[in-house]
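Extended Data, panel c. Modelled sequence:
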Amino acid sequence: MSRPLAVAALILSLASCTGGAAAPRETGSPERQALLAKIDSIVNARITGGKAAGASVAVVRGSDTLVMRGYGMADLEFEVPTPPDAVYEIGSVTKQFTAVAIMQLVEQGKLSLDDDLTKYLPDYPTRGNRIPVRRLLDHTSGIKGYTEMPEFGRLMIQKLPKDTLVKLFSKAPTDFAPGEAEIYNNSAYFLAGLIIEKVSGMSYADYVQKNLFDRVGMANSRYCSEREIVKRRANGYDPADSTGRLVRAAYLDHTWPYAAGSLCSTVGDLVKWNQALHGGRVLSPQAYAELIKPDTLNDGTTLRYAKGLALVPLAGRPAIWHDGGIHGFISLNRYLPQDSLSVVVLWNSTGEDLDVGEAIIEAVLGPAPSRAVEFTGSLEEYAGTWKGTGRGRPLEIILAADSGRLTMKQGRGKPETLTFVGEDTWEHGGTVLRFERRNGQLSRLRLDAGYLYAYASR
């Protein structure tokens, strides 16, 4: 892991560059101004196109702040321009804070990742399964995810005791035996939060505030509240319908996202977090190594997800990251260790085409190196409908041979062209499809999307 680069900081304008006011004149080299213009274009295209209300963006390489600014509107009704330090709900970016809290308690000898969860939550019904704490942190527990349960829709607007939710998802059948697969799971992180409280003797919110936010100097970060007055808080918006028209985000009580998604932060604070976490100032070297170490499934398959952090390459480069989505907000927190590069984008809107992280990375570092290998076989051999178990619903992948290309379609999404990288393996973005053969014939597909590792067959 490379240390932060010792280069001079050049902080560009922090003012909003949209929302009616003209952007102030920037200083710096022509190359720096060209980079800023590229990033402005990437972000503003979503705002002027009506897909988002606003965003805050931070791009920091080592100690060099390339961009730290707000775009669009933090409040559409009052037409309030977005400041760089607007406060957003960060959704599942919360998970890395929960995982780090667990690792701190491991460092202190207060728990072990190999302990069964019933050591700390003795009343949890495991149905004879042994579920180590580590299986909660990498989505391999098999516990039913509560956000995929229809009943949660009625619960999420109510303020009730936390065990109300635990009773709901613990009664549901497990998706698979612990360690058999990886399916993104908010229930597991809810339980991890309860374990933190049981072991530390503190509420989850107080533990994170004292041991993470205060320690790192994240002065604008907190556990989200529906009622507190928070200065510079951005309002959240969701698309109302297929036209993409924005409306105010639906209500969600923050009893429920909890340790899976209830933290609020700013782009500046998340850059501080990246630099402290990956710079050795939050965990010991041994605990940090465990944090970012991917576990394996029962069949020996190595995951590309560690503990609250994905290890899927971005723009063709090694990366440690996590994104989040919650009512009204999308969050991207990307860290590229080889370049000590943080790219943090917080949107106060949800919807399609808001993942601009890789586009910004490529603007800074250049195009992703190609992994493509020439394919000389039959595309028709791969074509067909492959089915398995996904997140909350059956997994269905439709592959088609189309004009010399192999395309993939999932759900209502548009067909995406796959790239052949050799040995019956195809890729699109961070998703990898590996095909297995039996007696020379394709028999099974392994889908590795970073947050999901599942099997499918025709």
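Residues 30-48 form the longest helix (19 residues). This feature is highlighted in the accompanying rendering.
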